[in-house]
Amino acid sequence: MQIVNKKDVPEILTVNIEKLSNLGLGLAKYEGYVIFVPNSCPGDIVKVKLKKKNKTFANAEILEFIEPSKDRVEPFCKMQNVCGSCQLQFIDYKAQLKYKKEIVEDVMKSIYGDKIEVRDVIPSPIIKEYRHKIQYPIGQTKDSKRILAGYYKSGTHDLVNIKYCPIQPNECDNIIEYIRIKSQELDISGYDEVSAKGTLRHVVIRSSYANKKNLVILVLNTDKINNKIKKLCKFIYDELPNIQGVGINFNNKKTNLVMGEETEIVEGKDYIEETLCDKTFKIGAKTFFQVNPPSADNIFRYVKEYIKQNYSQPAILDAYAGITAFGLCLSDIASKVVSIEEVKESVELAKQIADENNITNIEFHQGDAGKFLSNETLLGRQFHITILDPPRKGCSVNSLDYALKLTENKIIYVSCNPATLARDLKYLKEHGAEALYIQPFDMFPHTYHIENVAIIDLKNVKVPDIKLP
What we know:
Blueprint: E1 12-16, E2 19-20, E3 26-30, E4 33-37, E5 45-53, E6 57-67, H1 80-83, H2 93-112, E7 117-118, E8 133-140, E9 147-152, E10 159-161, H3 170-185, E11 200-207, E12 214-220, H4 227-239, E13 243-250, E14 262-268, E15 272-276, E16 279-283, H5 293-310, E17 315-319, H6 325-330, E18 336-341, H7 344-356, E19 362-366, H8 369-379, E20 383-388, H9 397-406, E21 407-415, H10 418-430, E22 434-441, E23 451-457
Parallel strand pairs: 4-6, 7-22, 12-13, 17-18, 17-20, 18-19, 20-21
Antiparallel strand pairs: 1-5, 2-3, 3-4, 5-6, 8-9, 8-11, 9-10, 11-12, 13-14, 15-16, 21-23, 22-23
């Protein structure tokens, strides 16, 4: 259908929500003109008011529900509509999984183009208290000087003070409330984004699903620790149960990054322990680790079982390794694992984990992945399987080229962003790689985020020319 001129689209109209966008917004159309509606569900019939109209789309707000979708439910969190963290909590969980599969299919079709099998989403084993990394911005009221901690209202930097969050462990709520009260007692100021003043900027908690211990990091808008902060750290460690350690991170730059480069542990230990594939992992303040351990365990076991059924003692390259979680989980079915990770802290933790789990067939490398892979290409080493688990921005072209050059059989690509996965699959396809299928996993219930594992066959690959440095 031809898109109408935006001037011809009424400001107020009734629309039928057809599906969810890749950002979890309800999508409706008026004679081809796209309208995005937050907090709506496929099947909703709603009266909306359009905000600013763009050439081909507009965002809208709901004025009235004419007919609610059969998949709509009452959110279990009273703050759902203002918090901005759980965009889909008003949708029945089974329906969430169906719509997430459709999101992946739509993104693949729009970018990848080729038909590819997207399997049913494997649900999260738990859908409440699943989030085991918590990052709370801290603020302060002007008059009462009350400390605020919570999340930003959707699309803004307006801090919503959260006392209870049902998607994170209940003990984390208690820790945050204690820090609110003690900070005010000790006259420790909360951070103000506008003036860039105030001492306490964020509170970060790494919480263990395996043993319920917690690592608490106070992010400060300063470059040194004063006596008040030392007292707060000691109070947290001494007076709260299940605290593994308390540390300080220094971040006095005007930036959107939560944590700065330097972290100092003031009380206790600098890690918590988590279990995946029956192996014990150490997780530090800045270590990358999946926030939903039971769902992560599903992913690791799935990849392990796929490799076990199709290969006998393969050589595996674990790129973007973090604390080498994949490499460590796969070590007992591999002849050798080669791990590359840029963050020094993660590599050191991975080495400790290997020693404590009596794993001896992993070769650890710390440094830039591109430089390491170019060196491997020069050496002519080959791997049966390469695991790619990049950040949301996906892989660089160089990294994909190196993976094609170094891998004999399969690339297993683990992605938290369907759009960059589709982009990278398209590039790999242009060189003869075939994505056999995509298996989604629900790592983040009640949000639009979805984790995907793509199995990529390389039997018809034409290895690209690589200009080595």
